[in-house]
Amino acid sequence: MQGLGTARAPRALILAPTRELAMQVSEAVHSYGRGMGARTLPIYGGQPIYRQVKALERGVDVVVATPGRARDHIARGTLDLDDVQVVVLDEADEMLDMGFAEDINEILGALPDGHQTVLFSATMPPRIRAIADSHLTDPVRVAIDDAPATGDAPRVRQAAYVVQRSYKPAALVRLLDAEAPTAAIVFCRTRVEVEQLVETLNGRGYRAEGLHGGLTQEQRDRVMGRLRSGADDLIVATDVAARGLDVDQLTHVFNYDVPSAPSAYVHRIGRVGRAGREGVAITLAEPREHRMLRNIERATGQKVPQQSLPTVADLRNRQMELTTATLREELVQGDVEQFRVLVEALGDEFDTLDIAAAAVKLAHQATRGGDDDEQEIPEVRMRDTRPPAGERHGGGKGGAPARRGHKGPHRPAPEGMTRIFVGAGRIAGVRPQDLVGAIANEAKIRGKEIGAIQIADRFSLVDVPERDADRVIAALRAGSIKGRKATVRRERPRP
To answer: What is the distance between the alpha carbons of residues 31 and 11, in angstroms, rounded to a whole number?
Structure first.
């Protein structure tokens, strides 16, 4: 910042994936540059664009923007990049996962020669390296050692619990009761799952709010405000909706499902244990998700211990411990004088110890609730999801392909499109954005030209323009998907 100087047009551009992160970065830059008179402006969607235009016209030194809104301003001619000396891509892997690859490439291509580019990413997949190779000149890679620094170590306790899907809501509530988090985020895969789980948690007495892509920016701000103020205990969120969130009092992260990609797991648990604080990351895994959990362990180099769910007896003991801690805190504060008269009056009829026990019982039931309806949750073990050889793709009974994960009748590719078979699927952690990124980067095809994507357990199907099919197949065969070579060919007609 010291070398940027001041001018009417911005000298630095910072790109961030979400509105929340853009605001946080802007606040930090403003704080750092206040003494130097640096002018900082966050620009993002959801805010009237005319207000941002007026601020840009007045002059600004550092612009912190989401890619989509930055591209809008560039197209309008209201964001002048001619004097930019430094551009920063913050959480670059997240931006690619959210589909901003084209925006980023266009923005970087509009920058003047001679600028410095800095790229920050929690993970370094091939797509990130491709951007670095295309837009950075002789880049220096700086990797932060996984070993935490002494005295300021992130201390995250990780654990996995294997649960049948039908028992997942009960298991989550059991763990919430046992862990008693100050504030927590529960990650789900879909919006529907978020809404269902919010209803379940609120029905059990938790103050939970949902966070997903269907919310307006105003609703999103209200949800986050309630969590930060302590009005709510829990946020139940999808990955995309929760990106860029930073909550200081967050103590727990719960993965309601095993994340399909190790990078998603890294981003999720990275929200706790910051600045030396303790945090807890808990994953609920179904028996069939054995390999996905192992993939995370291999990618992170860390063991995720598999533990047994607390029993009803364990839960009762834990609740008693919490009640004891609450009573001890009240006794230390000493503000009980007004209740002594009541105890003395009852002392003429009952034993003092019995009076104390009855009071503790009432306090325990009022704060922890009853557990008479608690049922034991069956304990299960991980199992390998590898199917018998005769049931794999192309080798089902009677010679028919076993299309695991593909529901409904087979539909041919639309006119003008060709369906490509990729021998990697959900178990390998493949997501739609991985296939879009690989095809767009390797075969140089725009993301919007890619058609429907179907992901099964062990393979994926992608519709691409017929004219580009051979180029896509050759490019994917030459490259890798999720770090692995995969079989790539045109889909074979079904009998």
So the answer is: 17
In the chain the domains, ranked by start, together with CATH numbers, are 12-135 (3.40.50.300), 155-311 (3.40.50.300), 313-368 (no CATH), 389-490 (3.30.70.330)
Using the predicted structure, report yes or no on whether residue 445 has a pLDDT greater than 70. yes
pLDDT above 90 as % of the chain: 15
Q: Return the bridge partners of 285, or none.
A: 162
Phi-psi region of 347 (alpha: psi -120 to 50; beta: other; left: phi over 0): alpha
Cα 363 to Cα 428: distance, rounded to the nearest angstrom: 50
128 dihedral zone (left: phi>0; alpha: psi -120 to 50; beta): alpha
Q: With left for phi above 0 and alpha for psi between -120 and 50, is residue 65 left, alpha or beta?
A: beta
Distance, CA of 204 to CA of 9 (rounded, Å): 54
Long-range pairs, 385-394, Cβ under 8 A, ≥24:
385/288, 385/289, 385/290, 385/291, 385/427, 385/457, 392/458, 393/423, 393/456, 393/458, 393/459, 394/492
How many Å apart are CA 479 and CA 481, to the nearest integer?
7
The dihedral built from the CA positions of residue 482, 488, 490 and 491, taken in this order, carries a sign that is: negative
Region of poorest pLDDT, from 155-164, 401-410, 461-470: 401-410
pLDDT tens for residues 303-341? 899 888 888 777 777 778 777 877 887 778 777 788 888
How much is the average pLDDT of 292-307?
Answer: 87
Rounded distance between C-alpha atoms, residue 289 and residue 383, angstroms: 8
pTM of the entire structure? 0.53
